[in-house]
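Preliminary data (for renewal application), adenosine-5'-diphosphate complex.
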Amino acid sequence: MGSEVMWLGLVALGGGLALALISLVYLLLRLHEAELRVRAKEAEHEGVLDRLQENEYRLRTIIESEPECVKLQAADGTVLEINPAGLRLVDAECAEDIIGKRIYDVVAPEYIGIYQENMARVFAGEAAVYEFKSITLKGRTRWMETHAVPLRDARSEVYALLGITRDITEHKWAEEQGRRHQTELARVARLSTMGEMATGLAHELNQPLAAIANFARGCIRRLRTGEVAPVELIEPLEEVCEQAERAGEIMRHARDFVRKSEPRMSAVDINQVVRSVVKFTEHEARQHETVVTLQLAPHQPRVWADSIMVEQVICNLVRNAVEAMAERHSLRREILIRTVPHGEDKIEVEVVDTGPGIDETVIDQVFDQFFTTKAEGVGMGLSISRSIVESHGGNIRAESRAGGATFRFTLQAIPVVLRKDERRYSLHS
Ligand code: ADP
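Predicted structure:
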C-alpha cells in the first residue's frame, strides 16, 4: 500500500514536471517566434530606412545638380533650404548667407508686396507663377520668375513653399529693347507722316494767320483815321488773340504728334480724335479728290488711350485709303469713318473706302512688317497700327469687298461706373 502511494506520488510528480517542461518549451518557442518576428520587423524597418535614405540622397543629388534655383521657404519668408544654383542666383558665398534669413533681403522693395501676395496664395494651397525684381546680396539687379507650389505635411497642412526660380533678366531686357524700338519706330513713322502732311499743316496754319493779319490791319486802319474809340478795338484785338491761340494749338498738336515719349494714357473722346485726323489729312484728301464723310456715334463712352497714338492709327488708315484710290485712279473716291460703340466696354472705329480693295492672296500679310505693294512704300504703317491697337487691348482687321477695303479696330471703353473716377481706372489699367 505504501509503495503504491509512493509510486502514484512519483507518477504525479513526473506528470507535473513533464507539464512544466512542455510549458517551458512552448514558452521558449513563442519567445523565439516573437524574437524572429521582431528581427523580421527590424530588418523590414532597416530596409525602409535604407530606401528612405536612398530616396533622400537621390532627391538631394537631383536638387543640388539642378541648374535652376530650388528653394524651400516658410510662411514668414524665411529661407529653409536652397540649392547651389540658388546661392549663385542671389550672389551668396555660402548657405549661411541666405538660409535662415528672410527672402525679402533679396527682393526689390517695390516688389515685396507682389511677392507677399503670391506667397499668401501658395500658403492658401494654390500654385503660383510670379515675376519680380531682385537685388542680389552683392547689389546686382536681376529679374526673376518663380514657379511655386505648396508643400504639405501628413495632416495635409501647408508647411512650406517649394519654389523654382530662374533668371529672366536677359529676356526682360530684350522685351524692353523691343518696346523701345517699337516706340522709336512709331515716332519715325509719325515724322514721315508729318513730313508728308506738312502742306496740310501749312494750309491749316494759314487760316488763323490770315485772320490775325486781317484783324490787325483793320485796327491799324481805324487808328490811322484817328476817329476810333479805344473800346471799339477790344473786339477785333480779342479776335487776334483767339486766332493766335488757335495757331498755337495747331503747332502744339503737331509737336505732340512727333514727340518722342512713352504712351501718355488718358480718357479720350474718340470722335474728337477722328475730327482731328480729318483736319490733318484734309489737304491731302482734297488734292486727290477724295471726299471724307464722318458717321460718329453720339454719347459714346470714352476710351482709355494715348490720343496721339490712336490718331496715328486712323491717320495711317485714311492715308492708305487715299493712296489706294489715287493709285488705281478710282472713279469714286470716298472715305467713310465711323465710330460704333459695341456694348458698354468696346468702341469700334471703321475706315471704309471705295478703292480697289485688297487682293485675297495678300490680305493676311498686310499687317506684316515691310509688306507693301507700293513702289515707294515702306510697309510699316499697318504693322505699327496693329501694335498700337494691341497695346491698347484691342484688335485690328482688314476686309475687302467688291467696292473697296474696310479697316476696323476696337478700343476698350471706360466703364460708365468708373468714368467719374478716372484716376482709379488708371491704377487698374
Ligand atoms: P505702305 O503704305 O508703306 O505700303 P502699310 O503697312 O501702310 O505700308 O500698308 C501695307 C499694304 O497694305 C499696302 O502696300 C497696300 O498693299 C495694302 N493696303 C493698305 N491699305 C489699303 C487700302 N485701303 N486699300 C487697298 N490696299 C491697302
